[in-house]
Amino acid sequence: MVKIRLRRTGKTKQPSYRIVVADSRSPRDGKFIETIGYYLPTRQPKVLEIKADRARYWLGVGAQPTEVVVKLLKRVNVLDEQGKVIAEA
């Protein structure tokens, strides 16, 4: 199964995350298929950048986002409140 999840990068106590598409069997920071964005929670304000078209593509072909990624995708208007993909405007 393909998942959209966070891949931790950065230094100790200074996390940054890449939003990646990966096989669910691979380790958290292991092999991945594609990077579709990044999230910097330690910056003020928090920085979130997602390639919406690629996220919609992967969701369309059946990739399952993790709970945290669902919240991030809702924040950038890729998913609606029910978790359905919003068509491009």
Instruction: Report the total helices.
Output: 2
Unreliable runs: none
Strand percentage, roughly?
35-45%
Main beta sheet strand tally, sense and closure? 5 strands, mixed
CATH fold node name: S16 Ribosomal Protein, Chain: A
Cα-atom Rg, whole angstroms?
A: 13 Å
Distance between the termini: 29 Å
Spatial order of strands in the largest sheet: 4-3-2-1-5
Structural class: alpha+beta
> How many structural domains does the protein architecture include?
1
The CATH first-level class comes to Alpha Beta
Can you identify the CATH superfamily? Ribosomal protein S16
Tally of DSSP β-strands: 5
Comma- or semicolon-separated keywords:
five-stranded mixed beta sheet; 37% strand; 5 strands; alpha+beta; 89 residues
Describe the structure.
The chain has 89 residues and is α+β, with helices and mostly antiparallel strands. It has one domain (2-75): S16 Ribosomal Protein, Chain: A. It has 2 helices and 5 strands. It has a 5-stranded mixed β-sheet with strand order 4-3-2-1-5. A hairpin with a 2-residue loop joins strand 1 (2-11) and strand 2. It is globular.
Describe, in short, the structure shown.
One of its GO terms (cellular component) is cytoplasm. The protein is α+β, with helices and mostly antiparallel strands.
